[in-house]
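## retry 2 of 3
previous attempt timed out at serialization; input unchanged, resubmitting
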Amino acid sequence: MINSIQVIGARGRVGSAVSERLAERGVLLRGDEAELVLLCVPDRAIAEVAHGLAPGPWIAHVSGATPLSTLDPHVRRLSMHPLQTFSKARGAEQLDGAWAAVTAESEETRTVGFWLAQTLGLEPFELAEENRSAYHAGAAIASNYLVTLREAAGSLLEAAGAPPEALDPLMRRVIENGFDLTGPIARGDWETVERHLEAIRELRPELEELYLVLAEATAAMAGQQIPSDKVSLGSGRGS
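## retry succeeded, writing output
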């Protein structure tokens, strides 16, 4: 469908993986006059870069949060967001098995976006422009906050004299097991939850609010209700 692509930002984390995969698939990578221009640049730079390009070719960005309007004045435009986290230490294999959100304003554009995603080895799905913020919030929770949780959990293991890296196989296995919920909240073991809170208040008091917010969300998901007579919610949250 598309024979030549210009990747702007080809040395970045996403751009380098994308460029490597396109080359593997026999797509001609050009410095100009390509059929499709793919912007793999920081979100804040998309509008400026797009404005500096002459209209005509297809133009796409790989941002999950940035609206299509940032590609003005281009009409043949779309976004294709790989739902993946990238490292420059790795290559095109980072794309394997990931999904991609495609936002397009016409059936023809959707076809181009799906072709691009599939050529990169991604599984495409359509994302409406008005749903972009909710989608990207979900992606941020799943990726960014996982790092936050690992840091918080690791600090508690450190406080207990245990190696934080011991958590890593556990976290990987949760994913491998299809996010099957286990643990004290799933089984209604509120005495253990209270002991958790006591330890946190003593060793890492700054994590109490985070633990409580996550406990309440987990209890709701598990169809449980935290009993106030068994779990002290702290002075800032009532009891």
